[in-house]
Amino acid sequence: MNRTPASLRLRGPLAGLAAAAAAACYVLAVRPRLLRWGASTQEAAGPLPGDELVPTPRMQSTRAVTIHAPAADVWPWLVQLGAGRGGMYSYDLLENAAGLGIHSADRILPEHQRLDVGDVIPLGPDLGVPVRQIVAGSVLALGGTMDPLTGDAIAPGSPAAAPRMEFGWTFVLEPVDERTTRLLSRTRYDYAPLAVGLILRPLLEPVQFVMERRMLLGIKSRAEGRTP
């Protein structure tokens, strides 16, 4: 009578324990760092303009970077965000591999320095996010509602649809002194049904961290007059 070796009998439970330990490590140690990279405890916990776009988020991140330039020198880089405009100052190669057609500028583009509430910032050929709030020199808030499976926008006031995701993305410039600025980026998401979160969290959070971190550093280097 064949007997299963003890090592094989233990392999399944040990693999399960290892997976559980890895998941716990991510949730308790790694994830908090991703969600508040560069931001202080006060910045991550405190309210920011644009929070009202998603009043009760199921997901939120606050990331920040210190820029050694006045806010007036940082603001033009934010205003020209978008595909076909100034780009996203992140990993163009990865974005274009997804067919987004983004090319990040290394200079201020005068033709893209006007932005108003209601304008749509393009993120790709068929993807864009509307401007919801703008305070010249300090606040740029974007947001909307979309189908998380297709990326299609859902018009405000349309009949409730499932699945759906509400999102807000706000950039805030806070002067530290005449030559130093804090750039904060906050994203807030709510979604339905709850099962959507099982897909969004493990996919969206790490990818967003990688791209947004690079974006903040890209804006920093440009505003400081350094080669990105």
Topology (elements, then pairings):
Blueprint: H1 6-35, H2 41-45, E1 59-67, H3 71-79, H4 92-97, E2 120-124, E3 127-135, E4 139-146, E5 164-177, E6 180-192, H5 196-223
Antiparallel strand pairs: 1-6, 2-3, 3-4, 4-5, 5-6
Which features characterize this protein?
228 residues, alpha+beta, Alpha-D-Glucose-1,6-Bisphosphate, Chain A, domain 4, 2 domains
Q: Write out the CATH superfamily name of the largest domain.
A: START domain
Structural class: alpha+beta
Distance between the ends: 67 Å
Helix content: 25-40%
Overall strand count: 6
CATH hierarchy: architecture of the largest domain: 2-Layer Sandwich
Largest sheet: 6 strands, antiparallel
Strand content: 25-35%
CATH top level of the largest domain is Alpha Beta
Query: What is the number of independent domains?
Result: 2
Average residue pLDDT: 87
Strand order of the largest sheet: 1-6-5-4-3-2
